[in-house]
User: What shape does this take?
Amino acid sequence: MNGVMVPADEAGVVEAVRQAVADHAPLAVEGNGTKRGMLRPVQAARGLSTSGLRGITLYKPAEMVLAARAGTPIPEIEAALAEHGQMLIGEPPDFSALFGTSLPATLGGIVATNLTGPRRIASSGAVRDQVLGVRAVTGHAELVRSGGRVHKDVTGLDLRKLLAGSHGTLGVLTEITLKVLPRPGGALTLAVAVETLEQAVAALSAGLGSPFGVSGAAVLPDGEPALGLHGPTALLRLEDVAEFLPHRSAALRGVLAGFGGVTLLEGEASGMLWRAVRDARLLLGGTAGTEEAVWRLSVRPKAGPGVAAALRAAFQARLLLDWGGGLVWVAGPATAAAHEAVVWAAQAAGGTFTLFRAPDSLRASVAVLPEEPAPLAAIGARVKAAMDPGGVLNPGRMRAGG
Amino acid sequence: MIELPAPDRSVLARREEILAALRTLLPPGARGEGVIGDPIRLKPYETDGLSAYRQPPLAVVLPETTEQVAAVLRYCHANRIRIVPRGAGTSLSGGALPLEDGVVIGMMRMNRILEVDYADRLAVVQAGVTNIGITQAVAADGFFYAPDPSSQLACMIGGNVMMNSGGAHCLKYGVTANNLLGLTFVTIEGEVIQLGGGHLDAAGYDWLGLITGSEGQLGIVTEVTVRILRAAEGARAMLGAFRSNEVAGQVVDAIIASGIIPVALEFMDRPAIHACEAFANAGYPLDAEAMLIIEVEGNLEEQDFLLGQLKEICARFDPISLRVAETAEESLAIWKGRKGAFGAVGRISPDYLCMDGTIPTGELPHVLRRMGEMSEAYGLKVANIFHAGDGNLHPLIMFDANDPVSFGKAEAFGADILKLCVEVGGCLTGEHGVGVEKRDLMPVQFLPHELAQQRRIKSAFDPLWLLNPAKVFPLEGNPAFAPQAVA
Ligand SMILES: Cc1cc2nc3c(=O)[nH]c(=O)nc-3n(C[C@H](O)[C@H](O)[C@H](O)COP(=O)(O)OP(=O)(O)OC[C@H]3O[C@@H](n4cnc5c(N)ncnc54)[C@H](O)[C@@H]3O)c2cc1C
Assistant: This one.
């Protein structure tokens, strides 16, 4: 790759894409490049970074709306929100430990990958559901807008959702407007000591099916000895008005009593734990380096334990379950055989998978996402051509040859 | 008046042949005929919730299975016949308005609930199940399906998906898109595709997100997997009456700034209060300029705590009156007028247009003032009822449908309101969709190249533009109605 362009404004992004189209010289599109190791390696002549597009452009706390340029680092946005007692709803993960990087993620990167933290299980939805509007430069070298700065907008086809999670293959996000929310007054965690993953997921389902407002539901298959949690542990988080939590946690404890002993974690112990779940740091354990492969599967919660068992049977797997048991993080050997086991496990459970991190040799040689059925793949190819006819945006990032 | 495209004469000429072919695909069964061609029986399908526009279709088909939907689409695709999908036909934007040369695919017979799973908190239902039908199926076990459009007794989940419908409680629970896990989707070529399922988030492109709210432009939905949620322990409402729209707007700001997100925060202006009170006798304050209905959830103590705080906030704005429901019955009484609002306005004026723009909540006083001026200029009354927390306005413009001048003015007034919404940073439609109603206003919100981009996505799914054409996209630039396309 011949260097990375860092345009300072939207016009610069338009120009960079126009030039790439003219030169038939594809671009590797990124923010701070913290997730360069995700999915497939991009084959590109040049890099295009949005890290030069920085800053919050609109923040109306009373309207619960914040807009920022795509390259704005997440911590900068979180700090601005914290000043008004507000937060990003989607709990965007910080994968610097997972990918061995040091820079913070950018807003554009989080939206382009649609990566949502533990709060995904609550009714607030995924990051893409909190995106009120986007501005993006398509492969036609045109700036297009979808949505805007209001909370409800169903005008026209929802390109916001198409662009969110498209990993920079359909457009370069330049600015994003998000819905934000007041930070809950209090938070705590109930940790349930269970015997099996099935019991753990059943405990999470019981909690999520209660009226007490569980906003995080994860499983640590081997506990977290540093916090005094030994053996398989189900974690349930409550967040709400601080005054409500004593009653809610007692009531939730009642719901969980039949599943195992319950430990209460409050304050920073609870906060730290969920950040570690969010960032999948608990998966990494003591291991340093990024030689091992990491996959992320999403299945029906009930299928989570079966998937975990299948993976453990197939290879030396370390696991972490989130989203009520439906999000299965797994770390294992970076081999085609292990990958094959993941593909089968996801398919058998009717779910999906991502090869999240792997050495280039593996991620360039396997399908890092499930294959789509032929009619859908055909639509996908036409949509890609409709957004990026020259194929200059992140070629090969999601699928070989696409 | 919105222009409807000229029909394809060659299709009209083949009507009998088309009906016969459709009948072989959908033979009469236990639930009656699968194909309707008799002009009298086509009548009920000629319009939807935007009843000012009427057009009987070429035929209506009533499939009972995904396979039948696929067969009809395959046939229509092969024979270049246009399709208009239809749920309950409650669209307020004319989304289900038929075409003279088009086949309506009515989804009402696909009304079975296929699976309910409380552990995974989901239900799999056919597209013709009503919105309330999902909640009714799970309510006994304490669960509900969250998005609750006011039309929920009639409207169908397939229609909700295609409009990305909202409701009074979407401030807390989100709109349809937030509550979907999967779709069974049939392409115009008749291919059946399963998108998503019981799991969260797709690994590839977010087809589910793109299709949601696509107004029948991309394909037909036959089955939907929705999230179901455990209902809160209880809910209670309060009512605050204020001296001006500005003040009520400030109260909304103050509530959000306090960190309390009510489950519902509804705004009514003076004309709406009067219309609803005359209809429902809900005890609404007739001396108020604006009124808020605020609802909170939780157990009794939690409700008391939140209502107490909300009362304090309201009290800072010199309210005319504050009424906090003490019981569930009193809550229902507060909601009674709001829930019957459309009916109430219907009593003062038999005909009204329900607009649906969204604005930044901070612009509320300005927009309401301008709307008042327009109302005087057009000589037409308008009542405002809307979801205040999210800025989604529903101005109801009253007119007389027997008087073409009055209707013309109502449409022009509506268009001016929507242009104002865009001008202050909002949009043309927050939840009712573009349909045929706002089709020609699209250039107000989008630049030509942005519309072209959306059209290219439409073409990627429906290259021949057979699916619900003449909606959403202005006719100019609409390939289905380019002069050369009209044979
Ligand atoms: C009194 C009243 C109150 C209302 N209140 C609200 C409200 O609070 N919030 C709100 O959001 N809306 C509201 N609406 C609008 C309307 O009810 C919604 O848009 C609803 O989702 C439409 O559902 P339906 O089944 O009637 O669909 P239809 O009106 O039949 O169709 C809607 C659109 O979807 C397409 N379509 C329908 N089914 C399918 C399918 N299976 N596959 C593909 N395309 C399909 C149609 O072609 C059309 O474009 C209200 C309407 C009325 C009359």
Summary: The radius of gyration of chain A is 21 Å. The CA atoms of residues 30 and 49 of chain A lie 5 Å apart. The pocket of flavin-adenine dinucleotide is lined by residues B 48-49, 84-92, 95-96, 107, 127, 149-151, 155-156, 158-160, 162-163, 165-167, 215-216, 220-221, 342, 431-432, 468 (CB under 6 Å). Chain A has three domains: 49-182, 186-278, 281-363.
